[in-house]
Every structure is written in C-alpha cells, then in structure tokens.
Amino acid sequence: MTTATQTASRRRASFHTLTVTEVRRLTDDAIEVTFGVPAELAGQYDYLPGQYVALRTTLADENGEPHEIRRSYSICAEPRSFPDGTSEIRVAIKKDLGGLFSTWANAELKAGDTLDVMSPQGAFISRHGKDGQAVDHNVMNSMNHPQELAGKPGNFVAIAAGSGITPVIAIARTLLASNPDTRFDLIYANKAAMDVMFLEELADLKDKYPSRLALHHVLSREQRIAPLMTGRIDSEKLQQLLERAIHAEDVDEWFLCGPFELVQLCRDTLAARGVDPEHIRFELFTTGRPDRPEGNAGRPVIEDESKDTFKITFKLDGLQGEVASPTHARESILNAALRVRPDVPFACAGGVCGTCRAKLVKGTVAMDENYALEQDELDKGYVLTCQSHPTSESVTVDFDV
Fold first, then answer.
1. Contacts of 258 (CB under 8 A, 6+ apart)
2. Which of 38, 169, 196, 294 is the most exposed place for a label (fewest CB within 10 A)?
C-alpha cells in the first residue's frame, strides 16, 4: 500500500451530493453538521486533519432570486471509517453577521437534508512526518492514514480564534494520539465563554492528555482570574503569551487559524522572533481587507470582437478549453474559464482557500492576492486563478497538474 509521502496523483476538487445525518448545536450561533459518505464515494472523501470542504446549494437572495452559493468549512473531526466501508465528514458552521449561507444553515439545516459537498482540499495540515520527513500536502493516497503524519514526537503550538478551532481540534487530536511524547499548546481566543466552540470536547481532550496538552482560553469581553487570559490579543499580549504560556522552547510546527488581523499579527511576531516560515501553517477565515481586490466568479463579461482580448487556454479533466477575455474587463482567469466550463473548481474566489489552483504553463499573469499558495508552489509556477489576470496576449493554465 502506498503511503501519504509517496508519489500519487493529486485529487482534483469535485462535488457529490451527500446526506446530512446529524446537526448538533455547539453554541447559540454555531452548529456541527455531519455528512454521511457512502462506501462507493469513500475514496473521494479521504482527508488529512486540517483540510476543508466546500458546500454548495441554491438559496434565494434578498430579492427572492435564486443563486448558487458556495462556502468553505474546515473538517472538525479526525479521519475514520466504519466496518461497512462508509465514512463521514463533520464541519462546524458559525453564523456570520449578514452571512446568507451560515444564517440559513443555523436556522434551517437538519438531518435528512442533502447538500453538494466538495472533496476535501487544503494545505493547513501537519508536515511533521515520520523520521522528520516532511509530508507533501499535494500527495494524496487512497487511505490517508493520519498516523503517518506524526510518527516522530514533536512540540506543536496552535493559536486560534472563534471558529478557527475547527481544523485545529482535528489536528490536535491526531498529533496527540500519534506519539506518547508529543506536546500540544493551544491558545484559543473568544469573546466570552458562551462563544467557545467544542468546549466539552476540548475539556475531554485535556483530561485525556493532562500532561501533554496545555489549553489557554483567552476571553476578550469576559473577566478571567488570570489577567493574561483576559482581553483582546494584541502585540503586547501575544508577546506575553508566547513567553509565559507556551511550554515548549523548540516548536516543531505552529498552526494559526482565525481572522486576517490575528493571523498576520502572529506571523509577524513569530518572524521577529526568528521562527522559520517553513514551520508555520496558517489559514484565514477571509482576507478581512476591504481595501484589497477580491476574486470574482460568475461576473458577466461581454466579448466584443472589435476590442482587444486576451486568449486564455486551460486544461481541465484532460480536455482543453479556450475563451477570449476583453482586455478592458480585467477579468480573472477563473471568471473567464467559468463562462465556458461551469465545472471549473473554486470555492471562496477570494484568494484564501486555494481550490482554484492551477499551473501557469504559458504566458504571464498578475496575481492580486495569495493567502493559500506556499512558496514552493509559487516557485513551481502555480497560481490562484481567482486572483490572476493575464498580462500577456495569451495565457495557458493547467488545472490537472
């Protein structure tokens, strides 16, 4: 049997309709949703702790017009399968202010409903492999044994806020179970105790690994006995937490998950402390930057043969597609491709998730934002098509590589 560190083909994102088997209330504004995966689709939903899925459905907007909506949510449970060959996917959905999908899901979603669920994607995983060998997150095998990710003991630290705990709890469970000498420190920020997702599960995990899991709840709007654990995490508080709360002197991997401002603060602080960027994994909810351009998907663009155009060629599922994009439209490659192939993979269209990743084969592009691709991927020529705009007369990208 091949392992997760051996060469295998990279699985492309694809949707299948799955049935909701359970909806469990986590907090007043958050739920855990379990999807049943039938045996015939089990291989499509193998995943590594920390990855996410995109959910797709059609909902009416404020004017009553139906629109397709896609939202990405991290998987909150460690991988497992059942004797009959079936498996499951669990995600947590926190209601966002003004969020159409999250509001609907928290109010209406129930067992028996069906949704389109994308095969798991994402690079927010541990690369601390056996014998210190790094794990390539683009290599997927047919079983995805999570224990292969951490045969070697290590010291890990996670800093999460709000629903950022969703992938972190899956990662923590897996790493702690993988080696009896592994340590995990978790700093978890919320507004108040009532907002803490997976509160009981975290307490159970602490009871299971009392000497190896250090759990630090930081509440911004609720007084705690320890002043260090009260208030918003700013630069000063983060420095104090790193100096006084973290037990490990040498950290093998850092996991950062939350809003842009917190993740960027942590990245900058760790960089200033000399932490190797190769040891830092991060994932964002959104860019959180209204001043920055966002990707687009489904934006109508009218081709005009009398105007200058970019020629965009793309390969998807072994088939080649071509589309002309008006130079004045400043259209993303993703948006152009979707006009002729509606099955082009994407989820957030904001440069965060990486689902629309493709390799630039010919031509040049300008990429507005990148919160998903790591440096080794950029060096190999990969781009986020939702953020990439042609800067040469013709551009060719390959979604299959």
1. 159, 160, 161, 162, 164, 189, 284, 285
2. 38
CATH 3.10.20.30 in the chain, residues? 309-398
Quick one: which of 114, 112, 95, 111 has its CA closest to 56?
114
Q: Is 152 exposed, middle or buried (0-12, 13-18, 19+ CB in 10 A)?
A: middle
Task: Average pLDDT across each block of 10 residues of the chain; the chain has 401 residues. List them in order.
Answer: 32 87 96 97 94 93 85 92 94 89 96 96 83 43 44 90 96 94 96 95 97 96 89 94 86 95 95 93 71 56 76 95 93 94 88 92 95 90 96 96 86
Beta bridge partners of 322: 313
Fold type of domain 15-118: Elongation Factor Tu (Ef-tu); domain 3 (2.40.30)
Please give the Cα distance from 60 to 100 (Å, whole number): 9
309-398 has which fold? Ubiquitin-like (UB roll) (3.10.20)
Residue intervals of the chain classified under CATH 2.40.30.10 are 15-118
What one-character DSSP code corresponds to residue 355?
Answer: T
Q: Which of 137, 135, 206 is nearest to 176 (CA)?
A: 206
Query: How many residues belong to the chain?
Result: 401
Residue 68 CB coordination number (10 Å): 12
Please name the fold of domain 153-284. Answer: Rossmann fold (3.40.50)
Residue located via tokens 């070697």: 152
Which two tokens mark 392? 């040469």
Cα distances (Å, whole numbers) of residue 172 to 120, 251, 256: 18, 14, 13
Domain with CATH 3.40.50.80 in the chain: 153-284
Spatial distance between the Cα atoms of 13 and 154, rounded to a whole number of angstroms: 31
Is 93 strand, coil or helix? strand
Q: Which two tokens stand for residue 175?
A: 């790493």
Taking CB atoms within 8 Å and a gap of at least 24, the contacts of 59-63 are: 59/100, 59/101, 59/104, 61/100
| CA–CA dist 328, 340 (Å, integer) | 19
